[in-house]
Amino acid sequence: MAFSKFFRSSSSSPSGGLLSRIPLWVLRFLQFVFAITVIGLYAQDLRKASDQRKYSDSKWGYATAVGTIGAVSSLVLLWPALSMWGWGWDLIVFILFIALFGLFGKMYIHENPEGNGGIKRMKNAVWIDLINALLWLITACYGGILFVTRGRRSTFTGRANV
Questions:
Q1: How many whole angstroms separate alpha carbon 137 and alpha carbon 97?
Q2: What is the C-alpha to C-alpha distance for residues 162 and 147, in angstroms, rounded to an integer?
Q3: Is the pLDDT at 35 greater than 90, yes or no?
């Protein structure tokens, strides 16, 4: 009996049953993977600058910070209780990734790599930033829809109408 309650969408659960959570889990997993990718793509330039005792540009620091925020947030927001309430944070992370896309897109989208591996890597990083932004927008919309359409029931037991 309890097993079937876990799989079906119930009105007492604000984010639905297990089947309604699977797409969100897939999106969160993709957000985590792409955020780690962003960290890897941008942090290697920070590492290179540090090894050569050169100035590291704050743009790359921002990119690494946004990737870290995205990775940690995607793991924290896997918790089902936050799936409905985390949509505001999803929107903030979306804005951070859009700013990152705009910052590096302006620098690298129209750049001709001419065989330069670093520029090719950065051009690819720009598109990964856009994918990240879109994933965060999707989860923000999903969470916003859950927030607006949720049943108005008590938080702890779900039995009382609020």
A1: 10
A2: 14
A3: yes
